[in-house]
Amino acid sequence: MHNERLLVLGTHNKKKGLELAELLAPHGFVLRTLADLSHAIEVDETGTTFAENAALKATVQARHLGCWVLGEDSGLAVDALGGGPGVYSARFAGPDATDETNNAKLLQQLADVPLDQRTAHYVCHAVLSDPHGTARAESEDYCRGRILFEPSGSGGFGYDPLFEIPEYHRTFGELGSTVKTVLSHRSRAMRAIIPRIIAFAHLPEWTLESRVNDPNSQSR
Q1: Three-class SS string for the chain?
Q2: 20 phi/psi in degrees, rounded to 5
């Protein structure tokens, strides 16, 4: 137990947490999401870019929790919408938006746009923060595709049932988690930052912090 290294994934989204856990678990980390921590805080996403919001999610939460936090901000950029919904992807349809209402609004705004002009890409920016709130590593990557005229497939989350990978002629909602783990913006950004995370994980304070802040030892 003394060599366990806690890494908090800065998200309440269980499906997103599972995606990140699949990528990081083989590297010997004890992984927790914010949903596992009763003392986690809500970080205001006041940034105007994915990079700014990812840094806020990582550094502010890390200072509060006193442990290493991997924050990420991701979303959909549609060319016909000038890059929207962008950083507003999760709340595109309003503050109480759901995946269904966000998808419906996207389809409505693209109603008159032909298929060859419905190009889009997912973006993910990831930031690793140390327990003092200092960003120590970051990465960004993309996955390019296009938006279909109606949802297809029940897998994934967010805009996945509408987001088609043209080379596969399937949406992320149809391709399943195994293929998505290879192709997605999030997996690409994680693969880029994982070597940096592993390098920092050898620091003595990481192991110390993981023992002190392991959520299993917190009083609820």
Answers
A1: CCCCEEEEECCCCHHHHHHHHHHHHHHCEEEEEHHHCCCCCCCCCCCCCHHHHHHHHHHHHHHHHCCCEEEEEEEEEEHHHCCCEHHHHHHCCCCCCCHHHHHHHHHHHCCCCCHHHCEEEEEEEEEEECCCCCEEEEEEEEEEEEECCCCCCCCCCCCCCCEEECCCCEEHHHHHHHHHHHHCHHHHHHHHHHHHHHHHCCCHHHHHHHHHHCHHHCCC
A2: -65, -40
Our count of domains for the chain comes to 1
Q: Render pLDDT for 95-120 as a digit per residue (tens, 0 to 9).
A: 999 999 999 999 999 999 999 999 99
Q: Which residues are catalytic?
A: 73
d(CA 87, CA 50): 6
Residue that wins the pLDDT comparison between 72 and 201 = 72
Half-sphere exposure of 137 (CA within 13 A, CB side): 17
Euclidean distance between the first and the last CA atom of the chain, given in angstroms as a whole number: 21
Burial of 38: CB neighbours in 10 Å, binned 0-12, 13-18, 19+: exposed
* pTM assigned to the model: 0.88
CATH number at residue 49: 3.90.950.10
Retrieve residue 181's tokens. Answer: 């783990």
Q: Which residue has the tokens 């309440």?
A: 12
Q: Provide the residue range defining the domain that includes 53.
A: 5-217
